[in-house]
Amino acid sequence: MRLSYKLLFGLYLSVLLWLLLFKFSYDIVSVIEHHQARSVNLIPFAGLSSGNAREMIENVIVFIPLGLLFSINIRSLSFWYKLGVISLISLAVETFQFILGIGITDVTDLITNMVGGLIGLALYNLAGKYVSEKVLHRCAAGIIFILLAAVLFLRFFVVRVRY
What we know:
single chain, mainly alpha, two-stranded parallel sheet
């Protein structure tokens, strides 16, 4: 069973990176070639609007499973160490967006991604107090698998990417 959790973790990370870096585009080379716009925002929550608020909520939501999957797969590390690794993953994504010129490098994204990971870690710890580890792992993995399947189904059969 541990192998399936690790595979789910790898699949989730792959889909997460595909979403964050290439917005689910098939033509990654085209995204890199045609969207060279480097921009950095170091002011948290600058220009807050309804569109930005939606994006911030989406960033939080998309990182919650990362916190859950870290807790399932890497139990030997402390809560704060896991949160640090999640923060480093978010920082790496923002850095790659800048290097490749495919998005806005934004400190708000770092913060909201970290909050999502924090919520996932906290939910796991809270649920672990009331539910057995085996049940918790199966439920969390099942929910994450269903969400991933739904996202991939929508991407391949419903939503068109504009790149």
